[in-house]
Specification:
This protein has 8 helices and 8 strands. It is α/β, with parallel strands linked by helices. A hairpin with an 8-residue loop joins strand 1 and strand 2. The longest helix is centred in the middle third of the chain and has 13 residues.
Length: 228
């Protein structure tokens, strides 16, 4: 399994670093608000990893980091070896994940292969399947991944994309309880743009988002915004 997309220059995906973003080819969720719908729903041409390595070699000293995103990267059997190769080139590595494969996540952490981790927290546990666009979710894997991040020394963040159709004060309160004691949560603004899986969804207005922030500050040390 190979990566199917590359963003050759980003200032947004890894705070304070210039990064290159690699996109994995599949996902086990179908979040209606996902802006990478083309990656999740359609087969895209794979990029031979040897070509990616050759490209990265030309960016040493110019780019700080590589972000592994998706789709869901932890579905890639070759992920560990791919990250090892990237680290050997001298790049920092950030992983974006939905948290459904905690064993893979812990193995990458234990082998010192990750410099930053961003895990999506979709919603309260009872609304996870609906928010993820699937019939069921193994909630235990989500909880295990949350605890792994809270108990390890690799910098991490949780992040939630706020969508009016899926998030309410009640669900946000329960979301906060789920990640209670964590370091940082980013509330991301939903944008209905080309590539979103389900059209017609709506952003949460900033006034309401700030109410959500105040609720979540009871549970999380730092609650910040992205996109607002």
């Amino acid at each position: 399994m190979e990566f199917v997309g590359i963003d050759t220059f980003s200032l947004l995906d890894f705070d304070n670093y210039i990064s290159i973003v690699l996109f994995s080819p599949s996902c086990n969720f179908r979040c209606p608000f996902c802006h990478n719908g083309e990656t999740v729903l359609k087969s895209r041409e794979e990029i031979p990893f040897s070509e990616i390595v050759d490209f990265l070699k030309t960016k040493r000293g110019l780019v700080d980091a590589v972000v592994i995103s998706g789709g869901e990267p932890t579905l890639m059997p070759e992920l560990k070896d791919r990250i090892k190769a990237i680290k050997e080139l001298g790049f920092l590595v950030k992983l974006d994940t939905n948290g459904t494969h905690p064993k893979t996540l812990k193995d990458l952490i234990d082998n010192n292969l990750l410099d930053y981790i961003a895990m999506d927290i979709k919603n309260s546990l009872k609304l996870y399947p609906e928010t993820c666009g699937v019939l069921s979710v193994n909630i235990n894997t989500i909880i295990e991944s949350i605890n792994i991040l809270k108990d390890n020394n690799v910098p991490y963040e949780f992040r939630t994309t706020l969508v009016a159709e899926y998030h309410s004060e009640e669900s946000v309160e329960e979301l906060g309880e789920l990640i209670q004691g964590s370091e940082r949560l980013f509330l991301q603004k939903f944008v209905d743009r080309e590539g979103v899986i389900k059209k017609g969804l709506h952003e949460v207005p900033f006034e309401i988002a700030t109410k959500f922030q105040r609720i979540l500050q009871k549970f999380v040390k730092h609650v910040d915004f992205r996109g607002y």
